[in-house]
From TrEMBL:
It comes from the Eukaryota. This is Pirin domain-containing protein. Transmembrane segments: none annotated. The lineage of its organism: Eukaryota, Fungi, Dikarya, Basidiomycota, Agaricomycotina. CDD domains: cupin_Yhhw_N (cd02910). InterPro entries: Pirin (IPR012093), Pirin_N_dom (IPR003829), RmlC-like_jellyroll (IPR014710), RmlC_Cupin_sf (IPR011051). Coiled coil: none annotated. Belongs to the pirin family. Residues 14-122 form the Pirin N-terminal domain.
Amino acid sequence: MSGGTQFALRSSTERGHSDHGWLKTFHSFSFANYSDPKHSEFGSLRVLNEDRVEARTGFGIHSHREFEIFSYIVSGELQHKDSMGNTEVLKRGDLQMTSAGTGIQHSEHAHGDEQVHFLQIWSKPSVANLKPAYFTRHFTDNEKGDRWARVVAPAGEEGVSDARQALGPAPVHSPLSLYATLLSPGRCLSRELSTPALSKAYVHVVQTSGYNPSAASGSTIRVSTPDTQNAVLREGDGLCVTAPDGTTLSVENIGERVAEVLLFELA
């Protein structure tokens, strides 16, 4: 890459958006009936949906293959069932990762009497025809408080367990790491992008203050780099970052409430 860091802001109001009554969803990348050639993927990151599913409703049994699919639970409870025999109720702080590989079927429903708010994330695997596998991890708010919690990391890296349930990040068969933080007002976190030769990052601010298809509100952060790139993000906003290896990315909470921020580091 020639030149320095490049930022591309993805405003929440520009995301694909659908309100089906039982499901209120935003699509950061092309998905289902939403198609945007300018925003179809970023590195190995293919889908980033912010879903709210009403109580006693959900996604019926459907099939997937050749994707790494994970769910990050923000609030409420999500019931997961799949063709591998896994049945589980996921709650705040839980992260579920399904390596669909040669093919799986699963269903996901809001469990209990409350809406479930979660992020559905897909990445493209580096290897085809993998054996399907399922993993869950749990990260407390304290573990994410004003620090980066690494919640997903490439399979085979040191400290990344392939056990169904374990401490540490969930394994993904993609060149992708996912970090999460609950960043207090006035606090700043940095992260050095260390993918060889060329680094990509995607920053997403979770829409924790409530469903809002209009102008973003609530939490506000500033993302910056030493070469003077900077961008202000509000809830629902995303930021594509392309940078030379070793670039330090700083995320500062410039708002008045805690910001829940996801940072994807990509090859």
